[in-house]
Write a structure and sequence with these properties.
Elements (H helix, E strand, L loop, with lengths): L1 H6 L2 H6 L7 E2 L13 H12 L7 H11 L2 E2 L6 H8 L1
Parallel strand pairs: 1-2
Length: 86
Amino acid sequence: MEIQKEFGSFDTYIWSFTGGKPIQNNFSSYMDIPAATGLSDTISKDLKKRGMNFVGSTIIYAFMQAVGIVNDHTTDCFRYREVKKL
């Protein structure tokens, strides 16, 4: 609720870390996809600083993938190009 008060919505808060644009990765193999990144570390630390729990970097990166902040479809995946257009 504090994030909502400060940013207007959680959506605005979370997208502020990428300037409102999705991150388009170019992995050719699923084995290259990381479990966490510097950005997920940053978001995790910020959320923890704000008093949240269970927001480790790996969980945050999975969240980023799930909501479309990061496109980690491999370049040979049929969804890669479709998602990249968004």
